[in-house]
Amino acid sequence: MNYEKHYSLLCQTRQQLNRQKLPASHADYVYYELHHIVPRHEAGSDEASNLVLLTAREHFIAHWLFAKWKRTSKAWAALSCMRKSKFRLFTARQYEICRLANSFAFSGSGHPMFGKTHTEEAKARIGLHSSLRNKGTNNPMFGKPGVNKGKILTQAEKDKQAIARFQYWQNKHGYCLLSSSEKYKALLKVQYG
Known about the structure:
This protein is mainly alpha-helical and 193 residues long. It folds into two domains: 3-110, no CATH class; 155-192, no CATH class. 49% of the residues lie in helices and 4% in strands. Strands 1-2 form a two-stranded antiparallel ribbon. Helix 3 (73-82) packs antiparallel against helix 4 (92-105).
């Protein structure tokens, strides 16, 4: 497959549509994402000729095609970052390929820090940030016992928590992710008949 050709065609055809971002309250609203045809990490500019509005699906496909075409660590990283959005889903196969390619691209000489060391100034900044974290006496829970530490739950309390977890997932997502053990099946039968 000629990934370069398909990437170029996608960007060119969508650029010719002259799409516009509209406010979400507008009657003709369509969700678009701004895409750099030549990415910034490859010295792409923010000029209008290098920008195109794509739907979320088109944007993912554009990054997928670009990563498959260029096969650079930064291209794979850009695609991998897209997975972090809670609104964008893609197949397990695509995710697997993306994650594997990203890990291979960033291993060894492909890693941006390969063969480099931090300057003393950078090390000092890193140390400063880590010392400001909630450690020891800086932690608001320092010296206080945990809420449930050492508490032994009865079987009735465990059952009550299991039912509460089920109801939470059922109400929030419309489904439940619990094990299929006989214990939970019995609890659900008791609770819901």
